[in-house]
Design goal:
160 residues, 2 domains, mainly alpha, ETR1_N, nucleotide-binding
Length: 160
């Protein structure tokens, strides 16, 4: 238990290790290739959940919504491990990296279990049902717009 307390209390300390640039014999090209690749991966891993969130907000009644949120958390945490790997070239935050990796592992397992749990329901889901629901939502929005227009016309007539 003492090691756990020590780990947590020193989570942001990095004086136990040198920055990655000074571990081994990194050439400038190899180091920057590593850093820039990790930063690019991190950026993609943060854009993808943003797109998922945008999609979730635009669609109503999405089936299996918790799985979407788990995917988002999983992707963000995966990206965070790449970001910390890039940062470690200057700041060797191996404790924070280990914690991020533990969180990534836990959320990854939760996502996998959720997919295993929901797979039979996903297989049963009929694409036509989703398409029909989408078409009904489009019609509903069209009718709501028409109703609103009729209300405006009625209000104008009442004000005359």
């Amino acid at each position: 238990m003492e090691q756990v307390y020590d780990f947590i209390s020193r989570l942001f300390e990095a004086n136990d290790w040198p920055p990655r640039w000074f571990c081994g014999t990194w050439s400038e090209f190899h180091g920057w290739l590593y850093v820039l690749s990790d930063v690019a991966i991190w950026l993609a891993y943060f854009v993808i959940p943003a797109i998922i969130i945008f999609f979730i907000q635009k669609r109503r009644n999405i089936p299996f919504l918790p799985v979407f949120w788990l995917f988002g958390a999983f992707i963000i945490l995966c990206g965070s491990t790449h970001l910390i790997d890039a940062v470690m070239f200057w700041w060797p935050g191996y404790r924070l990296s280990a914690l991020l990796r533990l969180l990534t592992a836990l959320v990854s397992l939760a996502t996998a279990f959720a997919l295993i749990r929901d797979l039979p329901k996903l297989v049963e889901e009929q694409p036509n049902d989703l398409l029909r629901e989408y078409e009904l939502e489009k019609q509903l929005k069209k009718y709501e717009g028409e109703i609103e227009e009729l209300r405006k016309q009625l209000a104008l007539k009442n004000n005359e």
